[in-house]
Amino acid sequence: MASTKYNDGILKAQATPFPGGAPPRFDMERMRTRSLVGKLVQRFLENPRWALALLRRFKPVAKVGPFVVVTKAVDVREVLERQEVFETPFGREMAETTEHDAVLLGLQDGALYRRQKSAVLSAFPPEEAESRVRAIAADHSRRIMATAQPGFDAVRDLLRIVPAKICREYYGLEIDDENAFTEWSIALSALYFGDYFGDPAVRDLAIAAAAHMRETIDKSIDLEIARIEAGLEPGATALARLVKRHHDLPKELSRLDVRGLMFGMVSGFVPTDILASGNALDVILSKPEAQAAVERAVADKDDKALDRAIMEAMRFKPINIGPVRYVNADTIIGEPSGHPYRVKAGTTLWVSTLAAMFDDAEVKDPESYNPDRPARDYAMVFGHGIHWCIGSAIARVQIAECFKALFARRKVARMQGAAGKLRRLGPFPEGLAITFDRTHKEMFEKHALETIICQLKPGTDLRALRDGIGGARQSGATGDRQRVSRSWRRHPFLFGGGRLPR
Fold first, then answer.
1. How many Å apart are CA 121 and CA 23, to the nearest integer?
2. 3-state SS, residue 347
3. If you classify domain 8-441 with CATH, what class do you get?
4. For residues 136 and 250, is the Cβ–Cβ distance under 8 A?
């Protein structure tokens, strides 16, 4: 029988050198599911609720292959709250990829965990999800959808794009290639949270991605340190706050701590939001009542109703069946539901938050889509216990703003055929094409394509630059065009074959 990689498999893989001493070249195609068995498993995981319902009804705590699966809501909560016995198994691989042995997502409760959590919350205050992140997500989502045409790939060209923009503008990371950055984060997430059996290809990709991610984060830290040493005011980003805290209290928060915290906030945000939003979009386009609720909330400009509609969609198809936990001592689980089950140290538990959110002992009419149901019914979408998603506020507003821009279009629907189905690269959404009705203006307005080449200095405000050029090109006022021209004359702008009008 196959066994999970926890923890002997991880230790063995870490002790095995790569051929030639270095991991293979980073190539995301290695994550693509090609085997028949893999495709069958992937198809089952698109909707495993029927199988989980059978387990919940007849065997709430059951041995399934190398896992012990927990499906009753009361038992799921118990396991996720007993973190002293049921460990998060990500720590060893996070330590390896960050080159730091104290990464928040891999820690158990204690002084170190609380100190690092305090640092994260001070750098990423939840209230800034509304005051800052929403505007960033809304701006980029509207810009993207403003030029979208029927056949638009909502996953590839919207849901996979906006998270990296937030990492640049709110997190404060210096990202050279946003697409590559997103792929690195996905590779890391796949190793930490989705590779239960120790797939060598997943490990190879993650180790290669980790080197790139360390370089990106370290470069960003260096820039913030340079600002401080130059006597400049720290930036207004999450990273700037962490670096300032490190500078002021180096014994409390080391440079490696800063790197580790940013690693966790990236790998726990970018891939997770792509997965969550892609799955939610799939549900919304499959359920007329869900799409009606989303469209109504968008039309009414009701952010709270939109959040409820999306969260209810996520309940039907969350990011996974549930988290895994490693048992570090012999114990008994299942007693809260009246189904005691003894598990031995070394067992891997699969704690099904998906099954828990459909437990009719606690959730009324669970198979119906109801955006007005109590929030506790979908609370486990972001986990439970001390490792409940610390960035959930950011995730909710980012996904909401993407959907707000998307469903502001009229008559959004899937494209016919394969293009309109949710496609995946490994477990992560890769594409889903949609169609919609274009407005009369879009159908008959003439468009011109212009290529702009410009030399930029570090620190250039790209949004102001983009808005200034756009305003000059669209304005009929000669004075406006001349002011923008003079403002940027020190840079060589080329519009198609000519220079910016003078």
1. 35
2. coil
3. mainly alpha
4. no
